Amino acid sequence: MRWRSPIRGPWLTSVFGAVLLAALPVVTLTGLLSYVAYAPQLGQAIPGDVGWLKLPTFQWLTSPAWLYQLNQGIHVVLGMVVIPVVLAKLWSVTPKLFTWPPVRSPAHALERLSLLILVGSILFELATGVLNIQYDYIFGFSFYAAHYFGAWVFIAAFIAHVCLKLPKMISSLRSRSLLTELRTPLAETRPEPSDADGLVSSDPDPPTMSRRGALALVGGGSALVLLLSVGQTIGGALRPLSVLLPRGRVLGDGPNDFQVNRTAAAARISPDDTGEAWRLTLSGGDGSASLSRAQLLEMPQHTADLPIACVEGWSTTQTWSGVRLSELADLAGVGEPASAQVESLQRSGAFNDAALQRNQVLDPDSLLALRVNGADLSADHGFPARIIVPALPGVHNTKWVRSIEFRT
Fold first, then answer.
1. pLDDT digit string, tens, across residues 201-220
2. Is this model's pTM higher than 0.70 or not?
3. Fewest beta carbons within 10 Å, which of 200, 216, 310, 362?
4. Could you tell me what percentage of the chain is helix, strand and coil, using 3-state DSSP and rounding each to the nearest 5?
């Protein structure tokens, strides 16, 4: 089989490779930071037991309040944006996949094995990531565990590939001027000189696209993906265009008109659960308390503008009012809590409880929220009370709170 495109060659492959060399480490790092944000030291990150792949953990910051919103927005949106570049890079090296003999030496075998693992892992990470954004828990396995371990396979293969190919990429990039190629029209497009890797066709067809056109096509594809996804993170006029990040598109109404990830009906929350008989139970120290919503509303109320940012990439910032968690800790007799365990009334689905770090409990903007945007929380947004903490992953801002245990 002959591959006869006249624009294939080491230079074009290296341009795509350079873009991925800059972008993929950022996608990987933000993904690993997202895992740390889930507080694996408190036993609530997924997967929990990762053996020697355990990350160094630290106390996830609560300031700035948009920290997780920024981290996860970059991870999801940039991961989407690089898809056209990944596909273009695979197209550019297609001839190498069909070289014969497939293995010429032990060193060549190692290179091809690392390439196979690299391509397989990046396609797995991108495909499962995109499907997780589009659909709710469709996998027959834990997406979070598969994504975490798959990331480490990709990291190992990526480092090996860069070590093997970086000198070749640098020399290929220096062989032609990017500005010159961007000024070269279709009529003047010529094949690159023959190369040892066999990317350049020995019998090329007449060009139907210039290298400038190829770069514009791929760059335009990435720009379109950016336009159709970034609005879920930054909001504003671009939010309705975010058709590529459909999670979180179920909305409330009135002052509660913002994203709902899990409705009260889906969580099997009944009106009896949240009616007059509802009480918040506080425990952990020498004191304990059982408070009605009316009693909570009589306590000093604090208001803060805080985002909810979901692991799937959507986020929203609203104005929340309620009782500071630090004041509830004092009421429970734990003035200096090491952590807190929050339990929900939720009967179905994951994340019906969450552990909060010391700094997340004591931050002055960390609230047991009772109202949002000047109105009572709706049932879908956690009535009668929910947690809202700066820079906390969205699913840990527990809704329909029934108890908080402050731990020493």
1. 888 899 999 999 999 999 99
2. yes
3. 216
4. 45, 15, 40
